[in-house]
């Protein structure tokens, strides 16, 4: 990625908005690797008379706004993802679930090569970095509480304004039927994985998945998508929201943390969520199976022969996933008594 060229194109893309937002400074990649999105950091300098003619207007002492440029895949799915995340961030602005402020949205891939969101950069470091660096049990308990609080607050919101039709459709078995239909569609590409049998198990247990109160889901809530600042305030990133059952989010989070080798943290998160919610989570094991299969069907395409990743990155990704895949297989076996080989 030519970051200098990308910066020039971003400045042109902002056009008159650069006079209000500021001129983008040098770009720095924050993420890379296997995701279909790319995240870059920059600073937006105070406005200048002609943004296009002053790409280097960032004086050392000029006030600036830390910003993040998020690029999505240059296809229909990427456009939909960008629009969906923008809608979630706009909906949550000012809520108890703190999110970055959106500065600009562009859905036309031709403008920058990919659709993008320009957002204010939230202060702080990943929640996991803060947790891992602390050796004080009391501080770790406080961190777990701060991590869970935004998720509980999110699930307490009225989802109806965000998607009235989706909210109505999610009630009862609607959300479960939608999830299972997506799994059934995607699992057909991996007939040797054994996941078809697990999806069959989920169909047999779909009464456990019935949704009484549809909520706004994050869909990828985990310790590396939550920032915590020096005051202990947290900000939630990377929204792929949907309306559905709150237990899917909790199961996704707990299963992901457990796959990462941190079973005790996963258990603490579930316990704290139930404490803050004031009620137990029934049938969470079934939702953990659902969330684990959904995760597997998200990552398996990047490992197979039709992967969009370059061969070197594909092998790196495969190596990175050795332990998470083993733990995912163990979870499925423990919950369903089925041994999925996960062959791509």
Describe it for me?
- By secondary structure, this protein is α+β, with helices and mostly antiparallel strands.
- It has two domains: 3-120, Phosphorylase Kinase, domain 1 (2-Layer Sandwich); 125-336, Alpha-Beta Complex (Aminoglycoside 3'-phosphotransferase, Chain: A, domain 2).
- Helix content is 48%, strand content 13%.
- It contains 14 helices and eleven strands.
- It has helices at 3-14, 17-21, 76-92, 109-112, 127-133, 137-156, 164-170, 174-187, 195-204, 246-259, 263-277, 284-299, 311-320, 322-336; strands at 23-24, 28-29, 38-45, 64-71, 102-106, 116-120, 125-126, 215-217, 226-228, 234-236, 242-244.
- Strands 1, 2, 3, 4, 5 and 6 form a six-stranded antiparallel beta sheet that branches. It has a three-stranded antiparallel beta sheet with strand order 7-9-10. A two-stranded antiparallel sheet has the order 8-11.
- Helix 12 runs antiparallel to helix 14.
- The longest helix has 20 residues, at 137-156.
- It is globular and about 60 Å long.
- It starts with a helix and ends in an 8-residue tail after the last helix.
- Residues 50-55 have low confidence and may be disordered.
């Amino acid at each position: 990625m030519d970051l200098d060229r990308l910066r020039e194109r971003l400045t042109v893309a902002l056009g008159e908005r650069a006079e209000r937002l500021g001129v983008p400074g040098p770009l720095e990649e924050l993420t890379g690797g296997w995701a279909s999105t790319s995240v870059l950091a920059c600073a937006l300098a105070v406005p200048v008379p002609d943004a296009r003619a002053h790409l280097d207007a960032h004086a050392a002492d000029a006030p600036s706004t830390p910003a993040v440029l998020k690029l999505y895949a240059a296809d229909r799915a990427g456009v939909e993802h960008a629009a969906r995340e923008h809608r979630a961030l706009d909906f949550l602005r000012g809520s108890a679930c703190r999110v970055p402020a959106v500065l600009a949205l562009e859905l036309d891939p031709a403008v920058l090569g990919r659709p993008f969101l320009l957002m204010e950069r939230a202060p702080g470091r990943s929640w996991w970095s803060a947790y891992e660096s602390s050796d004080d049990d009391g501080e770790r308990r406080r961190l777990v509480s701060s991590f869970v609080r935004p998720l509980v607050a999110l699930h307490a919101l009225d989802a109806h304004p965000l998607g009235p039709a989706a909210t109505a459709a999610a009630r009862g078995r609607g959300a479960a039927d939608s999830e299972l239909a997506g799994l059934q569609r995607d699992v057909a590409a991996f007939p040797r994985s054994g996941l078809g049998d697990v999806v069959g198990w989920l169909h047999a247990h779909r009464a456990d998945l019935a949704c009484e109160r549809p909520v706004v889901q994050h869909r990828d809530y985990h310790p590396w998508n939550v920032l915590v600042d020096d005051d202990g305030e947290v900000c939630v990133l990377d929204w792929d929201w949907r309306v559905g059952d709150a237990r899917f989010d909790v199961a996704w989070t707990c299963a992901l943390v457990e796959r990462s080798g941190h079973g005790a943290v996963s258990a603490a998160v579930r316990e704290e969520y139930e404490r803050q919610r004031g009620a137990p989570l029934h049938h969470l094991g079934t939702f953990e199976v659902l969330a684990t299969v959904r995760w597997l069907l998200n990552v398996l395409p990047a490992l197979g022969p039709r992967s969009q990743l370059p061969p070197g990155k594909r092998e790196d990704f495969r190596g990175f996933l050795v332990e998470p895949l083993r733990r995912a297989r163990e979870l499925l076996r423990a919950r369903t008594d089925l041994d999925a080989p996960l062959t791509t």
